[in-house]
Amino acid sequence: MLAVLFILGTLFPLNFAEISIKLLDTNDGVFSGAFPNSFLLSLPDCGVYANRSATLLYAEAPSSQSQNQSFVVPSCNPKQLGLLLEDLKQGTEYTMWYQIANETSSKLTGKTISVVDYQQIDSGLKARSGAMVVITVILSLAMVMLLVGLFISLFFSG
């Protein structure tokens, strides 16, 4: 039985397997694969597609007009974590897929993150709680009493 599996493995190598594509996440050692204007995608399997020319095709979700980015699949190198797809629009949904020779991966849909300009964030306190008012009054009165005591002690000592 084991010999039959070996023979089938040599006749049907992993080249017939589908190319995998996914956004990298915490399991891959990154916080997220989606950023405001880019995606960090997993590379095709380096054991099967190493040093082969590949194309990443991507399109905005509502349109069918695709753009592409060509690259060479690196050999198994632990330093290169993934492929960075840059210069995208914020808050936009994209469909991405790999094409190597005549093989294509399944389509992956991802949305870039929407970011608010830090100057537009309202960081002001809208209202003060009663406890904040009481503490402020107590501290103000204590400071006035300390200053009056200082002046009285200076006046009677000299």
CATH architecture of the largest domain: Sandwich
- What's the structural domain tally? 2
Structural class: alpha+beta
Give the CATH class of the largest domain: Mainly Beta
Distance between the termini: 108 Å
Radius of gyration: 31 Å
Main sheet, how many strands, which sense, barrel? Answer: 5 strands, antiparallel
* Total E-strand runs: 7
**What's the tally of helices?**
3
Shape: elongated
The helical percent reads 25-40%
Structural description of this entry:
By secondary structure, the protein is α+β, with helices and mostly antiparallel strands. The protein has two domains: 12-116, Sandwich (Immunoglobulin-like); 127-157. Helix content is 27%, strand content 22%. Strands 2, 3, 5, 6 and 7 form a five-stranded antiparallel β-sheet that branches. A two-stranded antiparallel sheet has the order 1-4. The radius of gyration is 31 Å and the shape is elongated. The protein starts with a helix and ends with a helix. The model has no long low-confidence stretch (mean pLDDT 84).
